[in-house]
Design a protein that fits this description.
Layout: H1 12-22, H2 27-36, H3 41-53, H4 59-72, H5 77-86, H6 91-103, H7 109-120, H8 128-140, H9 145-158
Helix pairs in contact: 2-3, 4-6, 5-6, 7-9, 8-9
Keywords: Cytoplasm
Main location: cytoplasm
Domain RecX first three-helical: 13-49
């Protein structure tokens, strides 16, 4: 006999705590996950309000944690912002997390772009085609034009 049939149905709070014990989640992500477990919408909202009040769930904390993990992966601000929006984090919280990381010196997007480019390519490219390839590489990782230009200029100076 399966063990699950013996256990009583988990409450939205139990499921949310179990999820949050593994990693941070945005409120929107938790709402989706709890809804997929057939919890009623009203119970989910009440549960998430209580968790936020108790400080167990915070979109601001999620955004900071997510930002740090993506910086470690070498992703740029455009990609990080888009990913956070997709995960349901409010734009104001995203802007605050990005600004705080820059203000605290946790991230220098220009230097990160250069480091990411340097790990992949030895030089800025001798031909326009090679240079465009490097630009596409950084753009796909979420760096803006100024950051890409900076990275290409600095990579050329290093070699």
């Amino acid at each position: 006999m399966p063990a699950r049939s013996e256990a009583p149905a988990a409450s939205p709070r139990d499921d949310a705590i179990r999820l949050l014990a593994r990693r941070e989640y945005s409120r929107a992500e938790l709402t989706q996950r709890l809804a997929s477990r057939a919890h009623p919408t009203e119970a989910i909202d009440a549960c998430l309000d209580a968790l936020a009040e108790a400080g167990l769930q915070s979109d601001a904390r999620f955004a900071e944690s997510f930002l740090r993990s993506r910086v470690m992966r070498g992703q740029g601000p455009l990609k990080v912002r888009a990913e956070l929006e997709r995960r349901g984090v409010e734009r104001g919280l995203i802007a605050a997390a990005l600004a705080e990381a820059e203000r605290e010196g946790e991230v220098d997007w220009f230097e990160l772009a250069r480091e990411v480019l340097e790990r992949r390519f030895s030089g800025p490219g001798d031909t326009p085609r090679e240079r465009a390839r490097r630009e596409r590489f950084l753009a796909a990782r979420g760096f803006d034009f100024e950051q890409i230009r900076h990275a290409l200029a600095r990579l050329g100076a290093v070699d």
